[in-house]
């Protein structure tokens, strides 16, 4: 059974990395007084289509409020496309958006807008 001998280099490397001082380890550094990147905005959304109904969940992991809307394009020419009412996704909040067509759904998308 040579399992312990094959794990020896791995455990030695782990011990060396853990014994390094904090400043020698690679990690993200932010200069004093610097604000985080201003481009971080937008809830991450996932949509699910079941027949003619759509459900979307949008989670906002950022500080700014994201005003999200669900847009549905129906497949039939006589079926009315729809847009949901805007819903504000506050920081660390998940919102649920729903909509439907009478028949098949052609496409679904979410729009984002910064709430002021």
List the main descriptive attributes of the protein structure presented here.
single chain; 116 residues; mainly beta; Immunoglobulin-like; 4-stranded antiparallel β-sheet; 3-stranded antiparallel β-sheet; 7 strands; 15% helix; 41% strand; elongated
Structural write-up:
- The structure is a single chain.
- The protein is elongated.
- The strands form two sheets. Strands 3, 4, 5 and 7 form a four-stranded antiparallel beta sheet that branches.
- The model has no long low-confidence stretch (mean pLDDT 83).
- The protein has a domain at 44-114: Immunoglobulins (Immunoglobulin-like, Sandwich), CATH 2.60.40.
- It has one helix and seven strands; from the N terminus they run αβββββββ.
- Strand 1 and strand 2 form a beta hairpin.
- Helices cover 15% and strands 41% of the residues.
- With 116 residues, the protein is mostly beta strands.
Q: Mind summarizing the main beta sheet? A: 4 strands, antiparallel
- CA gyration radius, whole angstroms: 24 Å
CATH topology of the domain at 44-114: Immunoglobulin-like
SS element count, helices: 1
Short recap of the structure:
The protein has one helix at about 5-20, and strands spanning about 45-50, 55-60, 65-75, 80-85, 85-90, 95-100, 105-115. By secondary structure, the chain is mainly beta. A hairpin with a 7-residue loop joins strand 3 and strand 4 (about 80-85).
